[in-house]
Write a sequence for this structure.
């Protein structure tokens, strides 16, 4: 069976050139980067070169890159690191953040901190009005994701940057989905912290980074030997870090062309889906060109997903991390989408290698499945 992978917001396949630079670090003794002998120095050099590659791709200083085990850890690191500096303060986030921002904030509300949420509008965007509704004052962190993993909606960073500045709070964006799909420049955005993940950009899983403005002081997340400027102790995963660095270099080179290619695929896909009766979420706003989040009225998303999976098409229902969860997408509920329609939500996310033929194939497959499902519903009724 020919398989078609259309779930790149969940994870991407490792790029062969990335794997090639990682292999020597898996096959031979590299030493511990903290060791002073030649093996250790070699490992240290590899990490510092990767740090430069990440910094270059994101327009930050190498000293601002803190390697982590991925986006989840970087998000937890900034939430805890900012909160612990100001006990009892208020943590602000949007109501569509990924669980790895939302849950650490929720956990802290049981330990003396407060939270307040910024509410998106019906298209999944934070407008100026959302910020004016925030009444708290002692705010330590404002965290707003750059691009949403489900809808692809892109937020206006200048709004939350200005708001955070006015409140003397640390500003952070989760750029895990945006990086590699739109031009992301840490220096130009003027925010204090940003989260990246390697496996969304054709790098290995289990590595990412927190980009932290060098003037910012946060509490360490993991204590130990003092690696990563004392903020994240633990012997570094050298092969993964080297791979992440290479993936950053490659994605910077290909990003522009890839986003144009996926825009062409997205337009054809969405036209076809609408002809079949689909509702496209966040359709008319600035969003990622690789992401389409949609639903058909009275069709269970998981039923359609399973039927397509049997035919070799890999797509997602809601966010990857919550796809075992039967609850409707919190992003759609925050946008005021009806619960039944939200339960039908499916996501197609393109990658660098998807083709127009694959778009035509999935549209054909969806058409057939819808026909079958509607017949079954008619018989049951
Ligand atoms: N933030 C967003 C927006 C994501 O989509 C994801 C993963 O799906 C993460 C954070 C978590 O990143 P990681 O898988 O590297 O822990």
């Amino acid at each position: 069976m020919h398989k078609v992978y259309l779930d790149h917001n969940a994870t991407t396949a490792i790029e062969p050139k990335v794997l090639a630079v990682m292999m020597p670090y898996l096959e031979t003794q590299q030493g511990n980067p903290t060791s002073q002998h030649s093996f250790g120095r070699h490992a240290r050099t590899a990490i510092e070169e990767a740090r430069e590659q990440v910094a270059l791709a994101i327009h930050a200083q190498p000293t601002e890159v803190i390697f982590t085990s991925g986006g989840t850890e970087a998000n937890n690191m900034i939430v805890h690191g900012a909160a612990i500096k100001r006990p009892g303060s208020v943590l602000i986030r949007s109501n569509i953040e990924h669980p790895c921002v939302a849950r650490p904030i929720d956990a802290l509300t049981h330990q003396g901190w407060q939270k307040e949420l910024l509410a998106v509008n019906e298209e999944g965007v934070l407008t100026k009005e959302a910020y004016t509704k925030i009444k708290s004052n002692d705010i330590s962190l404002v965290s707003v994701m750059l691009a949403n993993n489900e809808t692809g909606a892109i937020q206006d960073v200048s709004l939350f940057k200005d708001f955070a500045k006015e409140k003397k709070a640390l500003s952070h964006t989760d750029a895990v989905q945006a990086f590699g799909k739109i031009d992301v420049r840490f220096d130009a955005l003027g925010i204090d912290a940003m989260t990246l993940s390697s496996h969304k950009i054709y790098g290995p899983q289990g590595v990412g980074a927190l980009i932290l403005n060098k003037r910012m002081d946060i509490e360490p997340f993991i204590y130990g030997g003092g690696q990563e400027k004392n903020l994240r102790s633990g012997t570094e995963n050298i092969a993964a870090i080297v791979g992440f660095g290479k993936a950053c270099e490659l994605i910077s080179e290909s990003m522009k062309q890839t986003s144009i290619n996926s825009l062409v695929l997205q337009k054809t896909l969405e036209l076809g889906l609408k002809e079949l009766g689909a509702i496209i979420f966040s359709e008319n706003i600035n969003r990622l060109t690789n992401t389409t989040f949609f639903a058909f009225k009275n069709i269970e998303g998981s039923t359609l997903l399973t039927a397509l999976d049997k035919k070799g098409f890999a797509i997602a229902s809601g966010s990857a991390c919550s796809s075992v969860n039967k609850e409707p997408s919190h992003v759609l509920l925050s946008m005021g989408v009806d619960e039944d329609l939200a339960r039908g939500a499916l996501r197609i996310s393109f990658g660098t290698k998807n083709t127009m033929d694959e778009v035509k194939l999935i549209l054909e497959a969806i058409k057939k499945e819808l026909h079958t499902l509607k017949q079954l519903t008619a018989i049951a009724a």
Notes: The first helix runs from residue 16 to 27. Residues 58 and 185 are 5 Å apart (CA to CA).
